[in-house]
Write a structure and sequence with these properties.
5-stranded parallel beta sheet, globular, 5 helices, 115 residues, alpha/beta, Rossmann fold
Length: 115
């Protein structure tokens, strides 16, 4: 599952993952994300977080504390430098700073899926 606010990045990441053989659900907003997760049952979530504020990390925290979703690895994508420094300690399994290298993204996904 990919939740990305930037439409161009969402399209690129979705296409990349489909080309790699993944079944992808692409979301442009976090609205209803838990319900979407229950229906789609993803093995991993790529989550865009803009700012490391309480509101910015709210979805990530929710996913890692909700019994229905806490087992799913969450990989955060962010352009904000403080996110990359702090979000992993708050709720993410891994953080990838934007702009990201496609091979790093794919390697991180594979690593998280193998654990």
């Amino acid at each position: 599952m990919v939740m990305e606010n930037d439409a161009a990045i969402l399209e690129i990441v979705t296409s990349l993952l489909i080309d790699e053989g993944y079944n992808v659900l692409a979301l442009s907003t976090e609205d209803g994300i838990v319900e979407e997760i229950e229906l789609f049952k993803p093995h991993l979530i790529l989550l865009d977080i803009i700012k490391p504020t309480e509101k910015g990390t709210e979805v990530c925290r929710l996913l890692k504390t909700d019994k229905r979703t806490k087992h799913i690895p969450v990989v955060v994508l962010s352009t904000h430098s403080k996110v990359t420094e702090t979000i992993k300690s708050v709720c993410a399994d891994e953080v990838i700073p934007k702009p990201f290298d496609i091979f790093d993204l794919l390697n991180t996904i594979e690593l998280q899926l193998s654990t």
